[in-house]
Amino acid sequence: MALKESEAIVLRTYPLREADLLVTLFTRLEGKVHAVARSAKKSKRRFGGALEPLTYVRAYYEDRERQELARLDSCDVLESPLADEVSYSRAIALEHVAELLDELLPDREANDAVFRLTLSVLAQMQHEAFWMPITYFELWMTRLMGYLPELSECIVCGRELNGDRAFFHALADGLMCLDDKRLASSEISAESRAIAAQMFRAPVESFTGASWPRSSASDLRKFLLQTLQRHIEKKLVTAGMLEKM
Amino acid sequence: MGRFAEPMTRLIDELKKLPGIGSKSAQRLAFYVLRSSDADAEALAAAIRDVKASLRLCSVCNNITDVDPCVYCSSATRNQRLVCVVEEPTNIAAVEKTKHFNGVYHVLHGCLSPLHGIGPEQLKIASLLRRVENGGVDEVILATNPTVEGEATATYLSSELRRPSLRVTRIAMGIPVGSDIEYTDEVTMLKAMEGRREM
Question: Which class in CATH covers the domain with range A4-83?
Answer without folding.
Answer: mainly beta
